[in-house]
Amino acid sequence: MKKLGLLFCLTIGFSVFANATGDAEAGKNKAATCAACHGADGNSLVDIQPSLAGQHQAYIVKQLKDFKTAFETGGAEGRNNAVMNGMAAALSDQDMLDIAAHYAAQTAKDMTTPEDVVEAGSKLYQGGDLDRGITACIACHGPRGNGMGLANFPDISGQHAAYIKSQLEGFRSGQRNNDLNGMMRDIAKKLTEDDIEILSKYLGGLH
Q1: Where are the alpha helices (DSSP H) in the chain?
Q2: Cβ–Cβ under 8 Å, residues 151 and 18
């Protein structure tokens, strides 16, 4: 009974936090140090770093909290990243909300999909691969890759191929393990190198 009570309190607490809103103007100032990797307007110029412009606020907050948890647990929990752990460590809950609100309010710049991966990428993204047990990406991330904010599924459209590739490889190896119920790890471990290459390039122009 105590465990159920604790779980209920944690769930309610997370829901309240997830539904809170930040101050985008305050977040702009707080995000000044983030610009080197993620761009002044959230559109990263570094292909291994994610663009955050237009990303769902709740998703950004979750990632920041997971980075902070990794810092506090020495990487045993949360999302472990040598750079981001330290960046998130000093942030308060309000800081995270404000920074997330700032990036969520920015406009993502259009990117393109190479013609040679459009057909294969569309097939895998929209239909998955039933024979290999690969769920279609569209199921969680939507037809244009915009994700679902309320479900905490991120917007994955318009991202650099190098970043998407690194994350899919991280999920596949288990190095990144902060996905809901291990959903991305289950899918990624079934992807081949070619699958990852195709999806990574395909998502750039998916808007």
Answers
A1: 2-19, 24-30, 35-38, 57-72, 82-89, 93-104, 115-127, 138-141, 161-173, 183-188, 193-202
A2: no
In whole angstroms, give the CA distance from residue 98 to residue 90. Answer: 14
8-state DSSP, 42:
S
pTM (2 d.p.) = 0.89
Where does the pLDDT of residue 90 fall: very low under 50, low under 70, confident under 90, or very high at 90 and above? Answer: very high
Q: What is the DSSP letter of 129?
A: B
**pLDDT tens-place string over residues 141-160:** 999 999 999 999 999 999 99
Written as six digits, the tokens of 158 are 């318009």
Q: Read off the pLDDT of residues 173-186 as tens digits, 9 standing for 90 and up.
A: 999 999 999 999 99
Question: Taking a C-beta distance cutoff of 8 angstroms, is the pair 47, 90 a contact?
Answer: no
| Pairwise CA distance, residues 157 & 54, whole Å | 10
